[in-house]
Specification:
About 60% of the residues lie in helices and about 5% in strands. By secondary structure, the chain is mainly alpha-helical. The chain has a 3-stranded mixed β-sheet with strand order 1-3-2. Helix 1 runs parallel beside helix 6.
Amino acid sequence: MTAPRGPVAPRLVVAFRLAVAMTLWLATVLLHRRVSYAVGEPWPTPWGSVTPIDHTTTAMVLGVVGVVAVLARRARDAPARAPTVALWGALLAVAAGCHGTLVTIDIEVVHYPQYALVAVLLAAALDADRQRRWLLEVVLISALLSVIDEAFQYFHSMKPAQYFDFNDLVLNQIGTLAGLLWYYGFPRGGRVEATRRRRLLAAMLALVAVCAAVCGWLAAAGVLIVAPVSAIREDGIWQVSDGLRVVLQYAPGIFDNWRPSRSGGTYFVLGPGLWLAFMAATTLVVWAVERRLRAGAGKRVAKDGEATAGQ
């Protein structure tokens, strides 16, 4: 007799949910510049003009308080709280460290809810029954979307920019992890599947390998350049007429160095190497968590089998 499977969303529902996630992501990409300018302009109100960017810290504090309040309520009814609380604590510590070193202006905290929501929608589309079997896939898909987002800003929407913003990629990754913790944290019961075919994960890993190989080949061919020999003009980052060339920073010495911050202090500009290290570390952490969940599920399945055989 075949064991009953958990609820599986119809393909049409999955496609619709993925479309919602991608539409939201695309809207945030296309509207990024307009929103960035809008929050810096005075907004007329019955109580006088208000500039939203001046109240970023207040909004950030209220947002954190609201998130903590909701998580505390969910934790109260959860059977196993300690692992999720520990993961939230570690993620908040990482976010605080990154905010103090990688952010040039406080409004950039918008990256956290932006990619947290994208991660929640992706997870809800791929794993509606919350079996916690799509963690790595969501991380990889979100990372790919994040790279596309930043490339669009650097080469098109946010000109002039002095460098490809790997810092924002890190903030987006933290937002993705927060979204996964929000969606899967404080489980209310149910079982986690011990095994499942991972065609999507295999496809994503293959895509990552292909992208890495292509980037390596372009760098070796002199097409993809991390830093020019000397400072170049804005239009020099993308050159086609005299041969294809893609430059990731306008002048040497920007990446992996401290620079003056727009908020008055300093911030550190990550280069591609440090970003890749951060991506590898966070992906390994997600893989370890998922493996632990699967190992626990396997033990429960074996225990249930022994109990059934003993009856």
